Amino acid sequence: YPTFATANNNLSQALWLEGRLAEALEVVERTLAAEPDNVHALANSARLLYLVGRSEEASTRIQRLKQSTRQAADRAAKIAETLREFGAAAGAVEVAEREPDLQENLGLQFHLGCALASLGRDDEAQALAREDFARIDAQSEPDGQQPLETARTDGLSYSLFNLEAQLRVARHVG
Fold this sequence. Notes:
Distance between the termini: 43 Å
Largest sheet: none
Oligomer: single chain
Shape: globular
Helix content: over 70%
Order of helices and strands: HHHHHHHHHH
């Protein structure tokens, strides 16, 4: 797995969750050595660098992430998520609003909603949350199953992420 980006990113997150930050950073650096423009590795490395007290390097990684041109389905969502986490909510909004596929990208909409709420733009955040809830209602069966989501690759994880994201937005915007 030394050059398999997905495996390395997942391994780095597992190490991170175990509190093994130096090892997690080492693994994510391997990913970046193989794929310097990998948006997940750039975002993870920024977080890890910040957590180990290397703030300037974390800022450099965020700049690289913002400048990334890598074509990835969740590129804009990953950039918006990272900017929001680092207190740059206005930048997250800018990234989200520039994205042509915003209406189809629930992950990006989630990060946009959180960024809007953190900027005090609660009416916009709540409107976005209502749109998301309507979409989820349309995709959900009466027993709570989401057949469209579970038909996807790794659908269970995505469905759980989707539901958790909606709960976080609901709690945040009241």
